[in-house]
Design a protein that fits this description.
Blueprint: E1 6-11, H1 34-54, E2 59-63, H2 73-81, H3 86-102, E3 109-114, H4 130-139, E4 144-148, H5 152-155, E5 169-175, H6 185-195, E6 204-208, H7 223-247
Parallel strand pairs: 1-2, 2-3, 3-4, 4-5, 5-6
């Protein structure tokens, strides 16, 4: 798809439901409430999206929704101290991400990336998707979910894929954008095959776990390693899906 027809990435609606966003020593001086702040941000963001659609937008990807933080006990404890419970934040997150996606016209493909942090090869969140997976996959009107799954010891196994309904895609972020070691195509294929035990591989895709340079600092790996990782990723994709696409 030509770059001019794609917009990525733009903050997910649920990002602004993060308790840190309001009453941080700045926002409360301008906005009377968290809700007023979110409403203003959404209006500005929707204006940008509408301009992009008018210019021919066909794909949009939202980033950094709140769900990864809602599987972290560390963050849940912090949010509890701030007066926000898991259920409240989950309800608000689902509502916010639905609202921003439901207003998009049918011809625009909608993706959402569950970032767990990607600054100088560091991560922010650990834990399985199990607590949020069923509602997230079933209630959010997104076509593709980009999930960071390069390390199942830290991020949990692929069992959460069992909640994905037909018609939705999960793009497996199993190529590590944080480390210089290059994953072989065969090792990536094995991961996709393991994920295929819980969801038809026709509903799966493959990608880097996050961007190679989410910030100006980048991550701790060379440009050459980045290219090699992408090459192995393409080889893996060919092994898993090339035959299926030819048959179709």
């Amino acid at each position: 798809m030509p770059a001019a027809r794609a917009l990525r990435s733009i903050p997910a609606g649920s990002f602004y439901e993060l308790p840190f966003v309001y009453q941080n020593g700045v926002t409360e001086k301008v906005y009377k409430s968290h809700e007023e702040l979110v409403e203003h941000i959404n209006a500005l963001q929707n204006e940008q999206i509408d301009e992009a659609i008018a210019a021919g937008l066909e794909y949009i990807q939202f980033d950094y929704p709140l769900y990864p933080m809602l599987i972290s006990q560390m963050y849940l404890d912090i949010f509890k101290q701030m007066g926000a419970s898991f259920k409240e934040l989950m309800d608000r997150s689902i509502a916010a991400d639905k609202k921003i996606a439901e207003r998009l016209p049918a011809h625009v493909t909608r993706g959402i990336h569950l970032c767990r942090g990607n600054w100088r090869s560091r991560f922010m969140v650990s834990g399985s998707l199990e607590p949020v997976a069923e509602r997230m996959f079933n209630e959010l009107p997104y076509d593709a979910f980009f999930i960071e799954w390069e390390d199942i010891k830290r991020e949990g196994g692929y069992e959460a894929l069992r909640f994905v309904p037909k018609g939705k895609m999960v793009i497996m972020g199993i190529v590590n954008s944080k480390v210089p070691e290059v994953e072989s195509a065969d090792s990536l294929v094995r991961k996709i095959e393991s994920a295929g035990k819980y969801l038809d591989t026709a509903q799966l895709g493959i990608s880097p776990q996050c961007g190679f340079a989410s910030t100006m600092h980048g991550n701790e790996l060379s440009e050459a390693a980045q290219w090699r990782k992408l090459e192995e990723m393409v080889k893996a994709a060919d092994k898993v899906w090339a035959g299926a696409s030819m048959a179709a």
